[in-house]
Amino acid sequence: MEPLQTAQDPETPATKLPPTPAESSAEGTSPAKANTAGDQEKTVAGLLPGETVVKEGKAAICFPSANEVFYNPVQEFNRDLTCAVITEFARDLLAQRGVKIVVPGEKERVVVSLSDETNEADAQTEEKNGAEEPAVTATVGEKCENGLRVLEGLAASGLRSVRFALEVPGLQSVTANDFSTKAATLIARNAQYNGVSHLLQASCRDASMLMYEMRGKKERYDVIDLDPYGSPASFLDAAVQAVSEGGLLCVTCTDMAVMAGNSGETCYSKYGSVSIKSRYCHEMALRIILHSLDQRAGVYQRYIQPLLSVSVDFYIRVFVRVFTGQVKVKNSVSKQALVYNCVGCGSFHLQRMAQSALNKTSQPPGLLIFGGIGTKYSAATGPPVGPECEHCGQRHQLGGPMWAEPIHDLPFVQKVLSAVSGNPSRFGTSKRIEGMLSMVTEELEDVPLYYTVDSLSSTIHCNTPPLLQFRSALLHAGHRVSLSHACKNAVKTDAPPAALWDIMRCWEKANPVKREKLSETSPAFKILSTEPSLEACFTVREDANPQSRKRHLTRFQENPQAFWGPKARARSCGGISSDLQDKRKKCQNKRKNQITDSSQLKDFPCKKFRQVSSPTHTHTHTGSHTKGPCELRTHEEKIHSASFLKIGA
Fold it and tell me: Are 631 and 602 in contact (CB under 8 A)?
C-alpha cells in the first residue's frame, strides 16, 4: 500500500478542516470577523461529528471522541522528553554538516552543574565552540535540506510527529506511519490543520515492511521512534537495520508485567532474556531491552550506544545510537551478564557472559586497541555464587542475559538537562524532566541494579533506617553510593552484599527485633546469627544528600488523576466497553477501600452456576451460564457446590 497522500495533494479531495491557530488569530483581527461567537461557531462547524481538539505543546490535534485512534495524555512526559533528546541529537549531528539549529526561547547555552564548583575549562571550551558557528541555520517548522529524516513507525493520531515538525528544528522530513486507515487519515488532517504538510507525510503501511524497504544506506532514517501499544519486539529487527549510521533509535515498552518478572518465559520469547521478580525489576527491564537491541543489531554487524534509558510511570523508554563495525561487535558479548538473585534475602551477583583481555603478543608496539586487534575473548568463568546463599542459605534464581554496561551517556544527558532547565517554558513537563535527568546524572553509571532500604529491613524484620543514615553508613565504610531514578527507595552502591548486611546488623543492634519469634530456617534468623565484621557509623554526612534532593526537584511525582496509566486499546468500532470502566472503578484502590457490606461481595455474574432459586440446593449443570447475579451463599452451600462439581466430573 502506498503512503497516504495528504489533503493538499491534487489527487486527494480536500477535507474541510477547522481553522488553524494562526488562521483563527488572523480572523480575529479582521473587522469582518470581530464576532468571537461567530469564530467559535465556525470552528465547531469545521470539526467532524464527535470530534474534538486536543492541545499539547505547540500542536493542536483533531481527535475523534470515540476510541478509534489511540491517544494517551499520560504520555505527554514521554513526548516532551523525546523532543528534547532529538533536539540535542540534531544539534550535535547537524553541527558536523555545517548547520546550526535555533530553538525558540532558548538563550545562550549555559552548562548546568549539580555541584557548587564551576569548571573553568568547560566554560572556555563552550566559548571556543561558540566562536565557530556554522553559516546555515535551521529553525522550527522549516524544511532543512541537510536535516534529519524522522520516522514514527506507529503514529496513531500523529500527535508526536506533529510536535516534531513544530518544535524540533533541523528536520528534512517526518514520516508518520500507522497500519490503521483511520489513523493515517487523521494524521493527514492533523498535518494540514497544523500547517506542517510540507514536513510531515502520512503513511499507511506495515511498520516493519516500511523499515525493511528503507534498509539502503542512502534511504535510512536518522531518527526512528517506536512507541507501540505493548511490546516493540516485533519491530526491533527492522528498526536496527533502517536507522542510519550513528542514527537515533527511540523505543518504548509498556509490557512491564512481562519485563518485570511475571512471565519470564514470555520475556525470553520476546527479548531473549529471562526476567525475574525482584526489587530492581524496573532497571532490569531497561537492561533487558538494551540487550535485545544490541543482540539484534549484532546480526547485521551493528552495535548500540545508549544515550538515555529511563523507567517512568508504567513504561520504560530508551534512546540509543546505532553504529556499524565488525570489530566492535565482537565486544558485545562481554557487555552482557547473567544475574543470580537470592530468593531469601534479595542479594544478587552478576556473571559476565564473556571476558576480554589485551593480547600483548599479537599487538603492535605502542598500539592499544580495546575491542579490536590485540584483544582476546574467552568464555567467562563462574558461577560467582555457591549452591546456597552465603548470607541466608536460600537458593538462587537465574535471570538474564541483560546489558551490564552503562545505560546513560552522561555528557549527552547533561546537554539535554542544560537545554531544558535553560528554557523551562518550552515543555509542559519541564520540571519533571529536570528532576528526572538530574537523578540520572547522579547515578553510579558503572554499578548495575540496586537494593532498596525497605526490602533490606523487611528481610530481617526491623524498622527501616532513614535513607540519609543508610547512605552515610556506606560512605563511612569507604563505598560509593547513589540513588536511582527507577525507584524512590533505591540505593545503588559498589559495596558487596556482605557489607550491606553488616550495616543492617549494626542497625538491628540499635533497633533490636524479637529474635525469639524468628524461625530458625528464616533468612532473618541466619543473617542476624552472624556478628558484623565492621562497626557501621550512621552519622549523616553532607555528601550523603544528593543535589537533586537538596534542591527539592520533582523526581517522583504522584499520579495527578484517577485511572492513571495505560489506556484501552483503540478499537475499529470506537468506544470503550462500559464493563471495562466498571471493572476499573471496582478495582481502583481495592486494598484501601475494602468491601465491608456482604451484599456487595457477589453482585457480579457467576461463572460457575445458574442463579440459586430454591433452598433445596438443586443445580442443573449446563454448558452455559446465566448473566444474572448470583445470590450470596453460605459456607455449607459452597461445600455442597464443590461436592456437586466432583460428582459431575
Answer: yes
Side chain identity at 164, as an amino acid letter? F
Q: Tell me the C-alpha to C-alpha distance, in Å, between residue 484 and each of 7, 440, 489.
A: 47, 7, 8
Angle at 241 between CA 235 and CA 247, to 5 degrees: 100
Q: How far apart are CA 142 and CA 155, in angstroms?
A: 21
Fill in the DSSP letter of residue 626: -
Range scoring the smallest mean pLDDT among 486-500, 589-603, 623-637: 623-637
How far is the C-alpha of 485 from the C-alpha of 310, rounded, in Å? 7
pLDDT per position as a tens digit, 118-163: 444 444 444 444 445 557 899 999 999 999 999 999 998 899 999 9
Q: Which of 199, 179, 195, 177 is nearest to 187 (CA)?
A: 177
Q: What is the DSSP string of 34-98?
A: --HHHHHHHHHHHSPTTEEEEEETTEEEEEESSTTS---GGGHHHHHHHHHHHHHHHHHHHHHTT
What's this model's pTM, rounded to 2 decimal places?
0.79
Dump pLDDT digits (tens) for 567-586. 555 555 554 444 555 666 66
Domain locations along the chain: 73-104+135-358+374-422, 450-545
Strands 221-226 and 143-152: parallel
Specify the amino acid at residue 514: K
Q: Under 8 Å CB-to-CB from 348, ≥6 apart: which residues?
A: 278, 280, 339, 340, 341, 342, 449, 497
Output the nine-digit C-alpha cell for 395: 537458593
Collapse the DSSP code of 451 into the 3-class scheme (helix H, G, I; strand E, B; otherwise coil) and give the result. Answer: strand
| CATH H superfamily, domain 73-104+135-358+374-422 | Vaccinia Virus protein VP39 (3.40.50.150)
- Helix 233-242 and helix 281-298: axis angle, to 10°? 50
Q: If you write DSSP's letter for every residue of 172-209 in order, what string do you get?
A: EEEEEE-S-HHHHHHHHHHHHHTT-TTTEEEE-S-HHH
Tell me if residue 138 falls in helix, strand or coil.
Answer: strand
Stated length of the chain: 649
**Which three cell numbers mark 376?**
582476546
